[in-house]
Write a structure and sequence with these properties.
The complex is a heterodimer of chains A (about 110) and B (about 110).
Chain A lengths: L3 E3 L2 E5 L4 E6 L4 E9 L6 E7 L4 E3 L4 E5 L4 E6 L8 E9 L5 E4 L3 E6 L1
Parallel strand pairs in A: 2-11
Antiparallel strand pairs in A: 1-3, 3-8, 4-5, 4-9, 5-6, 7-8, 9-10, 9-11
Chain B lengths: L4 E3 L2 E4 L5 E6 L6 E8 L3 E9 L2 E5 L6 E5 L5 E5 L8 E8 L9 E2 L3 E5 L1
Parallel strand pairs in B: 2-11
Antiparallel strand pairs in B: 1-3, 3-8, 4-5, 4-9, 5-6, 7-8, 9-10, 9-11
Classes of the chains: A mainly beta (about 110), B mainly beta (about 110).
Chain lengths: ~110, ~110
């Protein structure tokens, strides 16, 4: 099953904050976050690993709650360039892992 | 370093035909993964290749196949095309692949099946 992302869409004014959630019914090994702008390829934002390790951009933060199998992406002081669709990519299991994307959260930042 | 490149960028085929898409990873990257993106299903994982071997596979029919060459370039083939195969096909490369690696996506090949 796909992880569930919420909200599906959000509109922010520049400078406002947002949280995007990604929840899975499966035990997760890692969660990756990507942003895709219309007509462009997804770009990497963050990796959160079971056990707490994180890899990613300095200006973006995220969390991974292993008990809830949920990850949250925190966007603070949003800029126009933050607009796009945010996807989580959930890896369940190690070794022969399964990977599934959430359906995406469309973020629009307006002046 | 040059990014991930995919060819062709656009393709129009008819039902029943077959198609081959190509992906050149970032230099030094040995893992290539393929994804299908459609408005209805979103992004779905097709398969991952590492050192010329398929390491992982998503839930797609056998009409979808791939291979990787010794220089890490990868091709994806879809046989007996169906209308539902119309999609953006993305490939992504990483150094070693797996669930802890950053993936770098190419611009995609947009396939339209008529």
């Amino acid at each position: 099953q796909q992880p569930v992302q919420s909200p599906q869409a959000v509109i922010l004014r520049e400078g406002e904050d947002a949280v995007i959630n990604c929840s899975s019914s499966k035990a997760l090994y890692s969660v990756h976050w990507y942003r895709q702008k219309h007509g462009e390829a997804p770009i990497f934002l963050m990796i959160l690993l079971k056990g707490g390790e994180q890899k990613g951009h300095d200006k973006i933060s995220a969390s991974f709650n292993e008990k809830k199998q949920q990850s949250s992406l925190y966007l603070t002081a949003s800029q126009l360039s933050y607009s796009g669709t945010y996807f989580c990519l959930a890896y369940s299991g190690a070794g022969s892992y399964q990977l599934t994307f959430g359906k995406g959260t469309k973020l629009s930042v307006i002046p | 370093k040059a990014g991930v490149t995919q060819t062709p960028r656009y393709l129009i085929k008819t039902r029943g035909q077959q198609v081959t898409l190509s992906c050149s990873p970032i230099s030094g990257h040995r893992s290539v993964s393929w994804y299908q993106q459609t408005p209805g299903q979103g992004l779905q994982f097709l398969f991952e290749y590492f050192s010329e071997t398929q390491r992982n596979k998503g839930n797609f029919p056998g009409r979808f196949s791939g291979r990787q060459f010794s220089n890490s370039r990868s091709e994806m083939n879809v046989s007996t095309l169906e209308l539902g195969d119309s999609a953006l096909y993305l490939c992504a490369s990483s150094q070693e692949g797996g669930n802890q690696e950053t993936q770098y996506f190419g611009p995609g090949t947009r396939l339209l099946v008529l």
